[in-house]
Structure formats: C-alpha cells, structure tokens
Amino acid sequence: MKICYKCKKEVKVDKIIGRKDTCPSCQTDLRCCLNCRFYDLNAYNNCREPQADRVLDKDRSNFCDYFNFKDSASEEKSKQSNDPIRKKLDDLFK
Q: What is the DSSP string of 16-85?
C-alpha cells in the first residue's frame, strides 16, 4: 500500500511514477524524497542511498534515479515492532 506523505491517503500505483505524477487527493508531487523508501532524517543528506545526488527540496519532484516509493505497510510493521522500546524511551524522558 502506497500512501502520500502529505495527505496520508492511499495512492494506487500500477506504473513507474514519473516527475509529473501527482497525488489524486492533494495534487502534491509523488516522485519526491518524502515518498521515497530511502528517505531518512538521520542519514547523510537525508538519504540512505549512498550514490544518490543531493536534493535540496525534499517535497518537490526530482530526477533521482534511485527513487522507490516507500511501502507504508512495511514501515508500519517496523514502527510496531519498535513500539515497546520507543515507549520506554519516551517514559524515560518525561
């Protein structure tokens, strides 16, 4: 399941996402860093792909060859698996 980073609504994707493709709900660019599986705030240039060029506007369409729409189902599983640890950390710093 693919979800738009901005409106959080499901996006039906049955083809490769191009630079001009937008979310049917909010008209935001789909081929952007914030929708990519390599996007990571903790990584260098906010990208886990070491060969990717630097992109300044993470919310705008770009020419990155490594773009891969993140799968929100797998992301949700990883959040759930870390849930007990995250809760303990949050409780520690209250």
A: PPPTT-B-TTT--BSSSGGGBTTB-TTSGGGBS-TTSPP-S-TTS----TT--B--HHHHHHHHHHTHHH
10-residue mean pLDDT profile of the chain (94 residues): values are: 90 87 93 94 93 94 93 58 74 79
> Which of 12, 4, 3 is CA-nearest to residue 72?
3
Quote the DSSP letter at residue 9. -
Domain of residue 70, residue span: 1-94
What is this structure's pTM?
0.72
| Pairwise CA distance, residues 59 & 50, whole Å | 20
Token digits for 69? 């729409």
How many structural domains is the chain composed of? 1
